[in-house]
Amino acid sequence: SAVISQKPSRDICQRGTSLTIQCQVDSQVTMMFWYRQQPGQSLTLIATANQGSEATYESGFVIDKFPISRPNLTFSTLTVSNMSPEDSSIYLCSVEERRYSGNTIYFGEGSWLTVV
Amino acid sequence: DAKTTQPNSMESNEEEPVHLPCNHSTISGTDYIHWYRQLPSQGPEYVIHGLTSNVNNRMASLAIAEDRKSSTLILHRATLRDAAVYYCILDTSGTYKYIFGTGTRLKVLA
Fold first, then answer.
1. Which residues lie closer than 8 Å to A20 by C-beta, 6 or more apart?
2. Minimal CA–CA distance to A106: which of A50, A25, A47?
3. DSSP-derived secondary structure letter, B76
4. In chain A, what is the straight-line distance between the N-terminal and C-terminal CA atoms, in Å?
5. CB B14 within 8 A of CB B74
6. pLDDT in tens, A57-82
7. Of A21, B22, B37, B109, which has the fewest CB atoms closer than 10 Å, so is most exposed?
8. Would the CB atoms of B97 and A104 count as touching at under 8 Å?
9. B74/B17 Cα distance (integer angstroms)
């Protein structure tokens, strides 16, 4: 399975600032996904990021707030812009591996952001 | 998006089997059923997936109903390390999305 590294693993951010989260994969993957997990909640899909095309955002998420880059098949970034305390969450990067027996997604350990 | 429903929580005694149910009545014919679990302070971890037939791996078994509208994740002997939130999700073909529901929080009693 793919090994996914996220940076930073944790951060405390000031209100109004922006933070970029990096996601590095040890193999080339087509589909990458960014999720948010608010405290005590399930995962919510933010956007799907394919290399070479603009990210596709889910309802309730916009590019101005969560710009995403996908410069190559092993790397992606998610920026959380103009942060407020409501953005305090775990942000998770995941990748899809395609197999004959059905596709599977794997997750990084997450980036735990606290906005003060 | 196809949705799944799971009980909010379940308890099991250590060393006993656990059957975690999932309903997915709106599943389409090509949707795979996936199970993931999230241990405390970690990202979700793949457990198992299947399409129509029951599946076994080193972690668990997946039993899929004949009409595919429900499935059950089976942990054959629960250990304390299996305490986690278990998510049942559908690989909605054609949309390339993996939408998570609320999951089942499994508590394992020593």
1. A77, A78, A79
2. A25
3. S
4. 36
5. no
6. 999 999 999 999 999 999 999 999 99
7. B109
8. no
9. 7
